[in-house]
Structure formats: structure tokens, C-alpha cells
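Before relying on records like the one below, remember that each one covers exactly one chain. Contacts with other chains, cofactors or solvent are not represented anywhere in the record.
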Amino acid sequence: MKRNQLYFISLLLISTFLGNSKEKIVIGYIPLISQLPLVVQYESERINRHSFEMELAQYRSTTALEAAIRVGAVNVAVLPSPQVISISADEVDVVAIASIAKGGSSLFSHYESIEDFKGKVIGLTGFDSSENFALQKVFANYDLLAGVDFKVIGVSLSTVVEDLSKKTLDGFYLPEPYGTLAKNQELGQFLKIDGLGGLQNDLLVTHRSFLKKNGKIFEEWLKLLKKSIQFINADITNGNSKILSKLQKQYLGIPEDLFLDSINNNIGKISFSFDSVDEDLLNEYYSKTQSLKLITRSLNLDKLVHNKLGSE
């Protein structure tokens, strides 16, 4: 009897050890609509059996998520392109795989036209955000220069709508759902301006060392991510995003009616697709990070971009 017990205990310990020996992919994300594919993929696949385990880690800002990638606290994340450039310039060996969404950021303000922004303050997630680069480029076409004719400042997502209501901000250019939230509180209006919607703002990144060690499971994970994007588009097209509105609530924490208002009205011209890195746009951002002195080292973008992975 004792021998049988020891046998079964040994089997249990072995199975436990083997079960815990699976590689884990830690997915960092921010509760923004543009990062929806990451949470849909996790929710739809977490109970299924795969050759790896998944863990979802929420961060409240791009700065915090960037820090997590830098120190290796997460294996994969979606970050603004300028931050990806900055990380790589600091010799953190990351690779940019693709984009999983375009657009999703909206310019919202008390004012009705770009010309009204002279002498005004616009909130952004940070100076190293894609939104900052796009905003400066578009406003320059109207002879408005950042730091001369208008001011941009980094804001906290947790207080930005309140800041707008108190008029300590004149407007903001931020990822959704913040514009829709401000609109529903009747704090102003969206400004629909060419060049500020539908852009490849963010990139999916991982560490080269993680990719080298876990290439097969990472490609398996990418296939699941593509499936989640297909599901998202099907629900938007055929189901008015009703399944998504309920699924996202646990992870993004956006009230269902607010989520539906944003995504069904296509605020920020958001779209979901697995696309190669736009190398021309990345080069443009690279030049801008240099001119703004956000980086001090030169960078080989060919080494940073890994467009072939997941392209099958």
C-alpha cells in the first residue's frame, strides 16, 4: 500500500513539475481600446491548452509599460513607436514585430479649429508619444509651432478629463476612450483633421533574447493574436461590438456604453489588423526623436524591425 502511495505521489510531483515547466509569455498592456487584441487573445485562449502559459499584466501608462519592457518584467507589449526607438537606442535589445491596430487617438478640445490653439495647452501621454509627433507635423502646416505658438504637456490619463473640465487644459490628443468620455460630459468637441487619424501609432515588441529562446511558442502566440483580430473585426461588423463590450470590461475597465460609443463611431479612425511595421513612418519618427534630442545614440532600424515574423 505504501509503495503504491509513493508511486502515485511521485507521478503527481512529476506531472506538477512538468506542468510548471512550460514557458510563460508575460503580456504587458494598457487599458486602451487600441490594445484590445491583446486582451481578447488572452481571454479567448487562456483556458485552452497550449505549449506555453500566458500571463496578462496591466500598466496604467506608457511610461510604466516601457519601464517593464526595459527591465524584462514583461515579454511582449504594444508601445508608441518613438518609445520603441528610445528603448532600442538605449541598447535594450528589442525587436518590432508588427502593428495590431491603427488610429484610435482623437483630438478633443473646447475649441473648434486648429487656428484657435494659438497660445493654448494641449495634453498628450508624453513628449515621446506618436501623437506628439503627428500633432506637431500637422500643426506646422498651419504655421503653429510647438513651444512657440502652442504648448504640449504630458498628462495623467486618470485626471485628464477632469483637467479639461477645469480648463487647466485647452484640449488633448489621446488614445480612446478619453475623447469619447469628454464628449459624453459635454466638455467640447472632436476636431477631425487630416493626418491625425488612422496612423500606425504603436508597435508590438519583444526582446530578441526571448524570441531566440522561444521562437516557436512566440509564433504560436502570434497566430492566436491574429485570430483575436479576426474575431474583433467580425464582432464589430456583424455584432455591433456587443461581445467585445462585455469581454473588454474585465481588462480595460471601460463602461460598456462608453466602449460602444467609441468603437462603433470609429473615433480616431481605429482599425484592427496585423500589419508589417511601416518603415518609412518609423524612419520619420526616428528623425524626429533625434531632432528633439530624445535620443543621443544612432540606431540601426533594420536591426530593430523584424517584419518577417508572423507574416505567413
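The two ends are 55 Å apart (CA to CA).
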